[in-house]
Amino acid sequence: MGTLAVYPGTFDPITCGHLDVATRAAAIFDRVVLAVAASERKDPAFSLEERVALAREVLKPLENVTVVEFSGLLVDFVRSQGSHVVIRGLRAIGDFEYEVQLANLNRRMAPDVETIFIAASQEYAFLSSSMVREISSHGGNVSDFVHPAVATALADVYGEPRR
């Protein structure tokens, strides 16, 4: 069956940075589950179903990556998938501090679940979903930061970008 890793997040929306991390994780692990968190408290721009559909479209070329939704504790979900590995992407020092806190909390709840950090590629180290939403909401062009299907979905939410 091989090693399965879980790459969780809200993916609101999925960006080229997420794709980069997923692609690199897929090269390391036999299978990767991209787990789209419900996260209603974050007031996402896209519904859970839309985020899952967009992630599936973006990740379609990666044959060993599947996309599923989840809610509840991450460690419970990871175990339910038969995994013990969590993938997290890191962009900057601020991410590192927060992500290490989460990893340590998860390890305290589930000592058998290990977090593996993948540093963002330099070209995406600045990129976040919230920045993409902000740019799009002000009519900016996000086509360098997201898959064309995501750019279209953002245009449906925020309007077409200015030329």
Unreliable spans are: none
Helix content: 40-55%
CATH homologous superfamily classification: HUPs
Average of the residue pLDDT scores? 94
Shape: globular
Indicate the topology.
Layout: E1 4-9, H1 16-28, E2 31-37, H2 48-59, E3 65-70, H3 74-80, E4 85-90, H4 93-109, E5 114-119, H5 129-137, H6 148-158
Parallel strand pairs: 1-2, 1-4, 2-3, 4-5
Task: Describe this protein with a few key phrases.
42% helix, alpha/beta, 5-stranded parallel beta sheet, Rossmann fold, globular
Describe this structure in words.
The protein has one domain (4-122): HUPs (Rossmann fold, 3-Layer(aba) Sandwich). A 5-stranded parallel sheet has the order 3-2-1-4-5, with helices on both faces. The protein has 163 residues and is an alpha/beta fold. The mean pLDDT is 94. It has helices at residues 16-28, 48-59, 74-80, 93-109, 129-137, 148-158; strands at residues 4-9, 31-37, 65-70, 85-90, 114-119. It is built from 6 helices and 5 strands. The protein starts with a strand and ends in a 5-residue tail after the last helix.
